[in-house]
Amino acid sequence: MSTTETQKIEELANKEYKYGFVTEVEEDRLPKGLNEDIVRQISAKKEEPEWMTEWRLKAFRHWLTMEEPKWPNVKYPPIDYQDISYYSAPKKKPKYNSLDEVDPAIRETYNKLGIPLEEQMMLAGVAVDAVFDSVSVATTFKDKLKELGIIFCSMSEAIKEHPDLVKKYLGSVVPYTDNFYATLNSAVFSDGSFVYVPKGVRCPMELSTYFRINASETGQFERTLIVADEGAYVSYLEGCTAPMRDENQLHAAVVELVALDNATIKYSTVQNWYPGDKEGKGGIYNFVTKRGACRGVNSKISWTQVETGSAITWKYPSCILQGDNSIGEFYSVAVTNNYQQADTGTKMIHIGKNTKSTIVSKGISAGRSNNSYRGLVKITKKAENARNFSQCDSLLIGDKCGAHTFPYLEINNSTAQVEHEATTSKIGEDQIFYLNQRGISTEDAVNLIVNGYVKEVLAELPMEFAVEAQKLLSISLEGSVG
Amino acid sequence: MSNTDFKQWFIENFQTFEKSLNGEKTEAFHRIRKDALSKFSSLNIPTLKDEEWKYTNISPVIKHTFNIIPPEADAVPEIIGKFLFDNLEHHLLVFINGEFRKDLSRLSELPNGVEVGSLSTAIKNNHPVLLKHFGKYAEDSNNLFTALNSAYTKDGAFILVPKGKIVEDPIHIIFLNIAGEEKFITQPRNLFIAEDNSQVTVIEHYASDSDGIYLSNTVTEIFVGENAIVDHIKLQEESLKSFHIGRMEVDQERNSNFSSHLISTGAEFSRNEFTTRFNGEGGESMLNGLFMISENQFFDAHTMIDHAMPRCNSHEHYKGILQDKARGVFNGKVMVRPDAQKTNAFQENNSILLSDDAVMNSKPQLEIFADDVKCSHGATVGKLDEEAKFYLKSRGIGEEAATAMLIHAFASDVIKTIKIEPLREYLEEIITKRFNQ
User: Fold this and answer.
1) Interface contact flag, A399 B371, Cβ < 8 Å
2) What digits encode the pLDDT tens for the residues B189-245?
3) Coil vs helix vs strand at A314
4) Alpha-carbon torsion, ordered B330, A403, A213, A150, to 10 deg
5) How far apart are CA A250 and CA B37, in angstroms?
6) Distance of residue A383 Cα from the nearest chain B Cα, in angstroms
7) A-chain residues within 8 Å CB-CB of B371?
8) Can you give B119-175 as a three-state secondary structure string?
9) 3-class state of residue B317 by DSSP
């Protein structure tokens, strides 16, 4: 490599996190610490009914008996769960009818992110349920959805307005006893989105939420529940960027999807939280439980994720294929740079007959990061003619990073057909040479190759997201290429 | 027997074992045994919560009380004859219930300096090579069963091929277990040293023609010196009621070439741990395996290829055929350490389930810390290809014959890489007996 190239690379490598800034908004927050009282207070602040408070308390009591999992291939200092404030919300909580009423500071934040609400509203009819820290502050296109009978609101609103639906489905996919972080979330979740698409309705627009962690030292505990009734279709987008912070921030979200007969849910994520600085200081801990249940026949759940942020990512969007002929899909691009660590993958549990699943996972590690794919494909005894295809590729950029693959295949039925393949390699010198020869700089060549490498996954994203994701990829990898 | 009882049994009976050693209790070596025993007592019995034992339940094994001194048994040469390969010039070592039997062994002329014999003789003579290598590769500190084996080390095979020597004929080591009513444990400990530029082929053959209950807890350490070539075959045909726990640790020096085959058909429960480590550049390693299990058999293969040095190649291919209620586990790990650039590693695991009750758990893993590498792995689990079967049937070949034909083809990927033709024929016969009926 020539000196100029090295310099350029160093220059790019020194780039700061582009989306780092803090919005000054008056906050209403609870003191640090976690006990039954705090759980009750959270519930009271959200004006929740008795049954919800009880549910939270049940979860909290169970959480006390649990131990933090140690098996992921990630390293981080112990988290003091008593040193976190479990609730923070912009102080004034008026109901907005139009966007103009939204706190200008918040709107400015979105503008800085390059996703002004106005634009979003116009952009191909995207309805945004913007979650600012923990409380929904702006909701758009609600009326239009209402006409079709689609419920798209914040979780706290759903608890008040649609208690029957919430009672029926909340915790039905990820029970409050599920795992350490999901249980913690069940006890203290602040807010999130709730979507219900009634029978036979095809949601005409992409639903999206912009999550944003703003107040420092506030763990965000989002809770999302999406239910697609018989024959319904919905596509949901989740994307986020977070301001620069030094303290490690804990994020333990839970996402539950329920697809009934012939229903389809498509869930796309672009995650770009603060990954920590070049020395690995700071950054978000992203410990998320995402799970979808294909309850009905011919139902389908598709997860697509582009993970570029967070100091530690620890998540396994899963599909439980209960209904006959149901389909589960998982498309993932995980990029780690500097000291980032990612342990991510999926679980496909085949229970129904003729169930199919596809896993395409593309990991890219650069700098001193570690990127692991951990996936389970389980074919239960009754899952006749189940079919799975998994492909997990890793790309290594630099010799200080690590790429790991831990697939688990558990096959209990002889009619199953399960295939797994994985490759690990670096970008070929011959490929770069070929592009250099045609006048394309090394930096651009790597971008081109990486984009080709992840194309399969990006193609699954809705248009608007695909563009953003591509930008994110090149920002994340800038400067890591040698 | 509960978990603590199992450990307690071996701690308490150590004195009985010491007595059985008679005059063979040389000071230097006995300290190794005692150290191993204290490690054994400090280690826990693995449970399903241990990641390495996630699919392997050890309780059916440890619930038995195994007599620590195997019964004396006399093998008629006809029984041994069953496990020999026709038309093969070879050196033969025979162990009955873990003890070396010179009268049944047969060594042809060996090159000058080559030693092929029993470990107990090497211990008795305080053999310097033994003391240099013993316990250096298969460490006791993290493995309960290895520690147990080390503590109770009495006999096994000892092979030393000095610099530049070539042993032309394969060395066939038969560990024949003859069990009656009495349950017992046999713990062979093998040490194979191939010094620089040497070459040797070893067949480790565990066999039984009885259906007795016993536990084979074996440990094999292999040292492959610079430019040395070692060809290793492990054949496991233990009694269908027995338990087999085997560990093999290989240390490969610069430009060495090690190839291994594990063929497993026996034992109700078998656990095979196998690690090869590249200690110098330019090493080559091949790990192939084939297991065929039926009824209530359980088979577990745990392999680890440690690319600690640059420019090494490894190729791993494990295949399994499962019938009835058999359960199989494959856990293969390829580790590429930070400086191991220019590594080439390939790993594949294919399994065929011939029954709805068979279960296969496969965990092929890659852990890579270097960027200029080519690593890939693949795993498949399924039944025999219906279309291939249909193709054969449409040409007038019956269902069963077609199935057998496809199984032969499936297994041949592993068998064809064995260099010894009489052994290939022996294995083909085993498959024929199993599937052509």
Assistant:
1) yes
2) 999 999 999 999 999 999 998 888 999 999 999 999 999 999 999 999 999 999 999
3) strand
4) -50
5) 45
6) 10
7) 396-399, 401, 426
8) HHHHHHCCCHHHHHHCCCCCCCCCCHHHHHHHHCCCCCEEEEECCCCECCCCEEEEE
9) strand
Percent pLDDT > 70 in chain A is 76
Per-residue model confidence (pLDDT) at position B73: 81
Tokens at residue B87, please?
Answer: 């038309």
Q: Are A79 and A285 in contact (CB under 8 A)?
A: yes
Please, what is the angle between helix B27-42 and helix B3-12, to 10°? Answer: 160
The phi and psi torsions of A153 (rounded to 5 degrees) equal: -150, 180
> Please, which residues have CB within 8 angstroms of residue A473's CB and are 6 or more apart in sequence?
A306, A308, A333, A335, A447, A450, A451, A454
| Chain-centre distance for alpha carbon B42 | 26
Nearest Cα residue in chain A from B350? A419
Where does the pLDDT of residue A11 fall: very low under 50, low under 70, confident under 90, or very high at 90 and above?
Answer: low
First to last CA, chain B: 40
For residue B338, list chain A residues with Cβ-Cβ distance below 8 A: 399-400
Residue A300 forms beta bridges with which residues?
Answer: A264, A327
Test B364 with A422 for CB contact under 8 angstroms: yes
> What's the complex ipTM?
0.74
Question: Buried (b) or exposed (e) across A56-85, using 16+ Cβ within 10 A?
Answer: bebbbebbeeeeeeeebbbeeeeeebeebb
Say what the pLDDT of residue A294 is.
95
What tokens were used for B128? 């310097």
Q: Which range has the top average pLDDT, A75-79, A476-480, B96-100, B252-256?
A: B252-256
Decide the pairing of beta strands B157-161 and A402-411: unpaired
d(CA A370, CA A363): 10
Residue A233 has which token pair?
Answer: 């279709």
Cβ neighbours around A164 below 10 Å, total:
7
Nearest-5° Cα angle at B340, B336 to B346: 50
If you average pLDDT over residues A164-179, what whole number do you get?
91
Q: What is the pLDDT of residue B437?
A: 64
Nearest in space to B190 (alpha carbons), one of B213, B160, B235: B160
Mutation site, B329, B359, B363, B371, interface A, largest A CB count within 10 A: B371
Question: pTM for the complete prediction?
Answer: 0.81
Interatomic CA distance for residues A326 and A316, integer angstroms: 19
Q: How far apart are the first and last CA of chain A?
A: 8
Residue A114 confidence (pLDDT): 53
Domain ranges of chain B: 3-280, 386-437
What one-character-per-residue DSSP string does A76-95 give? -PPP-GGGSB--EEES--PP
> What does the pLDDT read at residue A136?
44
Mean pLDDT across the stretch A445-470? 81
